[in-house]
TrEMBL record:
Record's protein name: AAA+ ATPase domain-containing protein
Span of domain AAA+ ATPase: 24-214
InterPro entries in the record: AAA+_ATPase, ATPase_Atu1862_pred, HerA-like, HerA_central, P-loop_NTPase
Pfam families cross-referenced by the UniProt entry: DUF87 (PF01935)
Superkingdom classification of source: Bacteria
């Protein structure tokens, strides 16, 4: 499934879109000097994609906390929680799919790096069944993935850089799509920047940064001067989620604002030199009072968990759908599984994408999916791929009991072989097993059979005539022999 959002317009007024589905798979790098409009671009991206995908914002300046008012993001004050609590909150965020803003503006730089690193690592380490797609937006990424050691401690740099590297290099398979913004490419670790396939380059003045930006955009060095001439809020975009050729885009308007000071003219107060001198020196001899900084607001952990779990706005009241008989529900679910299994290339799609498709089809038919998580869905889908349309049929009882210990990714090929044995048919060939397994590699199928045989679930036998049969010793059954 794909969905597009309008990020802005080109100089001719045509809409420039970003394919969110493609963005989740290919990641995004935003670069521009201070004042070029990076934060405005990120805010536009977050606002437009908020209804489509879960969002996690690493916010070192507290600029994006206003998203909570308009879009229901949960704001987490990083200064209010201990290291272990930050990890637990991140784990619950993945589980409950809440959109959050991790505000780090109350922390020193060293603590910001440690907190962000621990938070990102906990997101990355979520169990497989919670690998739902999410945009992870990191503003001022050069702070969390520096190209060289700075004034921060080596421990903070190591924790933060490792987490950012995992996000950009390995996060895609876990559903985490990194969107990073930096003032200077030269300050950002190269192995972090290199993993992005989409680029939005804003105004920059240093020659080294212009040259790197031009290289990423596929422009000649003599064309790099155009990057210096970009106006505030204007970017050059390139990538599979944006455009196959560099395109200039003026970023569109946003609905929320930043808490930062508005940069505008503010004339000084009108007063004489004598009056100002008196104001500045009044009671100067008195001892200075200690400035007490307010402690960060720490929400009760249980209350915050409830807010994360209930982050989604409750839907408006609407007429209830007609009640469906349980037997009709099972038949309808079986039909949905069968339809999905019949689609070409379905097994090559990620489980999270298939599960979203499944829930959408269920809602379209008025079926409740509260009892279905990703694990239950994968097993139901594997049975449909194997042609087992009625799990309650007594023919499949022994096979399904035996399959309870088979890993989810191997379940469809195992059930397909088991069904052939029960029906006395030849074992499916490697091409058919590869189709339901979701691969085009024959070697993977051989490794699959080796794994199941070593686990004692199958016995593969090839007779002197070169005919192969597969037995299921626990059931006392075997497939018919066929040329291997």
């Amino acid at each position: 499934m794909s969905a597009t959002i309008v990020i802005g317009h080109d100089p001719h007024g045509a809409a420039v879109e970003i394919d969110v589905g493609e963005l989740l798979a290919t990641r995004l790098l935003v670069q521009g000097n201070s004042g070029s409009g990076k934060s405005h671009l990120l805010r536009r991206l977050l606002e437009e994609s908020a209804p489509l995908v879960q969002q996690v914002v690493i916010d070192p300046e507290g600029d994006f906390v206003t998203l909570a008012e308009e879009f229901g993001h949960v704001v987490i004050d990083g200064a209010a929680y201990a290291e272990a609590e930050i990890g637990k909150l991140a784990a619950r965020i993945r589980k409950h799919r809440a959109s959050v803003v991790l505000a780090l503006d109350e922390l020193e730089v060293d603590s910001q790096m440690k907190c962000a690193g621990q938070f990102l690592s906990a997101l990355f380490d979520a169990p497989r069944e919670e690998w739902y797609p999410a945009l992870v937006v990191v503003d001022e990424a050069q702070m969390f993935a520096p190209a060289a050691a700075g004034e921060v401690s080596e421990e903070a740099r190591r924790i933060s850089l490792a987490a950012m590297t995992n996000l950009m290099c390995r996060g895609r398979k876990r559903g985490l799509a990194g969107v990073i913004a930096t003032q200077r490419l030269a300050k950002l670790a190269k192995n972090v920047a290199a993993e992005a396939s989409n680029f939005l380059m804003g105004r920059t003045f240093l020659d080294i940064d212009m040259a790197r930006a031009a290289d990423l955009l596929g422009m000649e060095r003599r064309q790099a001067e155009a990057i210096r001439d970009l106006a505030r809020g204007q970017f050059l975009g390139l990538g599979p989620a944006i455009s196959r050729r560099p395109v200039a885009v003026n970023i569109g308007a946003v609905r929320t604002g930043s808490r930062a000071v508005v940069q505008s003219y503010a004339p000084p107060p009108v007063a004489s030199a004598e009056e100002l001198h008196a104001l500045l020196h009044d009671n100067l001899a008195e001892p200075a009072r200690e400035v007490v900084r307010p402690a960060p607001v720490r929400a009760d952990p249980e209350e915050l968990v409830e807010r994360i779990a209930a982050a989604d706005t409750p839907p408006p009241r609407r007429p209830e759908l007609p009640a469906i008989d349980p037997a009709e529900t099972e038949a309808a679910l079986a039909a949905i599984f069968a339809d999905m299994a019949a689609e070409e290339g379905c097994t090559f799609q990620p489980a999270s994408t298939l599960f979203q498709d499944f829930t959408l089809r269920c809602r379209m038919r008025g079926l409740s999916v509260r009892g279905y998580d990703v694990v239950r869905f994968r097993r139901g889908f594997a049975m449909a791929l194997a042609g087992i349309d009625d799990p309650a049929d007594a023919r499949w009882t022994g096979l399904l009991d035996l399959a309870a210990g088979v890993p989810d990714e191997l379940l469809a090929p195992f059930l397909l072989i088991g069904r052939a044995a029960i029906e006395g048919r030849p074992c499916p060939d490697d091409a058919e097993l590869a189709q339901v397994y979701g691969t085009s590699s024959p070697r993977r199928i051989q490794r699959l059979l080796d794994y199941l045989e070593k686990d004692g679930l199958l016995v593969v036998r090839t007779d002197f005539g070169g005919k192969r049969s597969v037995g299921l010793p626990h059931l006392g059954l075997a497939t018919a022999s066929v040329e291997a």
